[in-house]
Every structure is written in C-alpha cells, then in structure tokens.
Specification:
The protein is an alpha/beta fold. The chain is 31% helix and 19% strand. Helix 7 runs parallel beside helix 8. Strands 1, 2, 3, 4, 5, 6, 8, 9, 10, 12 and 13 form an eleven-stranded mixed beta sheet that branches. The protein has a two-stranded parallel ribbon with strand order 7-11. Strand 1, helix 1 and strand 2 form a beta-alpha-beta unit. The chain has ten helices and 13 strands. It is globular and about 50 Å long.
Length: 342
C-alpha cells in the first residue's frame, strides 16, 4: 500500500472511509489540505480497497494501523466507525495542535478552510437544559440527531434573551447543508434538502445540552482527549454519546461548545432508513437518561484530571449498561496512548 505522507503540520484533517481512491471528494480534500498545509489522515477499514493512492493523503490501511505505536489500535474492533480514533492518535503523535474531522460524503465550502480561533464571539447560552440549536438556524421544524424526542416540542427562547460574549470554545460544530445531520424519524417524516441560515454563532455552556456530531467538527489541543468515540454501542450513537461526555467535561473546564453555520454540504451515502431507525432506538430511549447520569457525576475539571474524568464518564456508561462493558479496555488503552503525546 502506498504511503503518501505530506509535511508535518499544526493542523490535521481526519476522515475514515472504505471508498476507493477514485472518490472525488477525497481528491478535493487532498488538494485543499496540500494547499493549506493540513496533514490529511485517512483511516481505512477491512472493506477498504487493497490499493489506494491519492497525492497529499496519508492513507492508513488496517495492516498499517497495526504497526502504529498504539495500544488502542491493536484493541479496536474492525468494521466500526470508532477506528477513526486511530486517526486522532496518529495526528497527536505527529504533534498536531488542531484537528478538523468530517466524513467522505461531506463536501467543503470555501468557508470550511477559514482560519479559526478557540475564542469566539457568540450568543452565550447556559442553564437551559436541552437546546434545539437547529431552531436558531432555520425557520422550519428540524432538530439535530441525538436531541431527545421528548424535547422536540420545547419552545426555544429568542436569541435576544442571550448576551453576545467572547467565549472559549475548544470544540466547534459546523452544520451541514442539503442533507443535514438529522435522525431517521425526521427523514421518514419530513422532506429534504434543507439549507440553514448563515451568520450566527451559538455557544452552549454549563447546563445547556445539545448533541454534536463528527461530520464537521473542529478541535483544539486542550480538548483532544474528548475526541474518543466509543466502539461498543450503536454506530448511530457513537459520535452523539461522545458529544454528551465532551460537553459534561467541558463544563467542568469552563468551556462552551460552539455551533456555527454550515461550511459543508452533504451528498449522503446510501442508507436504509429503517435500519438507521433501529440503530437509533438506544438513543431515543436513553439520550436524556445518559445526560442526567452525566450531570450527577463528580467531574473534577483541569488538564491534569481530564483522562480520569473521561474514565469516570465511561465507567458510568458501562456500569449502567448504556455501553458494553468491553468499552473500558479501549478507554484505558486510549488514555494510555493519549497520555504519552498530549
């Protein structure tokens, strides 16, 4: 397999894909990353093609992943989106300071590549319980995948009720136009495509919950341990449940999660919506419960406690049966790998 390493960079793009090297969007990302000195790390899986070559793309087959100095890479199950964690570890071992992640069916707008800052001017939203962030970006009835169904009829406060402040947001979620990240219930009941309104920043802090995904998400180094995607849960919940853990630990660090306008549009890969619905049932039943349990945990905050705080969250998730008990071995391996490079 060809290894097209590019120059070391402070910024890394991480994608996991089983597509062939002919997929146009991967070439687009490779060209743009080369132009902007991003390190583009592409993580394959067992269904990935035997041969893969795109200039400017650092492709890692499963075979190559197993050569990595990483305990996690040797334990992570194949045929799972959680192998994206290996891409994060590679980026950290390369010394990256910022990570942007997306999927191979999301196409970047020019704004995707804009310079960012972790200190952002945004509406400061705290202590609101569940917040339907999509409500603020659209006049249509729409909600993000992972918002509890029992919260759909909750009235959103007008933005004029919140102050605009400069807020520290080491995790930043961009939306996706055309085929936004909604659940199977929405897709079965409402028409798409849909484009979101532009020009708004919402920062959700302590006591304000909203799911975020792994399709257009920017991470600064201080939050890197929170990238962890669980493997022993539904594929449709791995990034959503990660987002709840990340929010809970962010609150203990005085951080907010930024939600901003769409900088990608999605040409969605083929999905069976009833299969998606089935895979999302653990979320429909447990999203709100998980967050109540997370609120009750003793999360210490601070860099020196972040890996322990992550373990605390996953100990609860496994003990309560939300995530398989096998997860803790992976969490421990992740923490061991991250502690060496973060």
């Amino acid at each position: 397999l060809t290894n097209n390493r590019i120059n070391m960079s402070d910024k890394s793009l991480i994608i996991t894909s089983i597509a062939a090297d002919t997929l146009e969007v991967l070439h687009t990302f490779a060209k743009e990353c080369t132009k902007r000195n991003f390190n583009f790390i592409l993580i394959g899986d067992t269904k990935s093609p035997d041969k893969f070559e795109i200039n400017g793309c650092d492709y890692w087959s499963v075979e190559r992943q197993l050569t990595l100095n990483s305990k996690f890479a040797k334990l992570c199950p194949t045929k799972h989106y959680a192998r994206k964690n290996i891409g994060y570890i590679i980026a950290l071992q390369n010394g990256t300071q910022e990570i942007v992640e997306t999927d191979d069916d999301n196409l970047p707008r020019a704004e995707f590549w804009n310079e960012k800052s972790s200190n952002v001017s945004a509406y400061d939203i705290k202590e609101q319980g569940w917040v339907n962030v999509y409500n603020y970006f659209s006049d249509k009835f729409i909600w993000p995948r992972g918002l509890p169904l029992e919260e759909l009829q909750k009235t959103s406060k007008p933005l004029s009720d919140f102050e605009v402040k400069n807020i520290i947001c080491p995790i930043q979620q961009g939306l996706a136009d055309e085929n936004p990240d909604v659940d199977a219930v929405y897709r079965l009941a409402y028409p798409l495509p849909l484009n979101f309104n532009k020009g708004m920043n919402l920062a959700l802090g302590n006591g304000a919950w909203s799911p975020f995904n792994s399709q257009n998400t920017y991470w600064y180094k201080e939050a890197f341990p929170l990238l962890y995607l669980p493997a022993y849960c539904s594929f449709r919940m791995t990034d959503i449940w990660r987002s709840y853990v990340a929010q809970r630990i962010s609150w203990a660090n005085g951080w907010s999660i930024l939600y901003h306008e769409a900088t990608v549009w999605q040409e969605r890969n083929q999905h069976n919506l009833m299969k998606d619905f089935e895979d999302e049932i653990p979320g429909y039943l447990n999203n709100a419960k998980i967050c109540r349990e997370l609120e009750n945990l003793n999360i210490k905050g601070g860099k020196e406690n972040m890996l322990d705080d992550l373990r605390t969250c996953y100990t609860m998730l496994t003990e309560k049966g939300f995530v398989g008990k096998e997860e803790m071995a992976l969490v421990d391996a992740w923490c061991e790998d991250i502690s060496k490079v973060w």
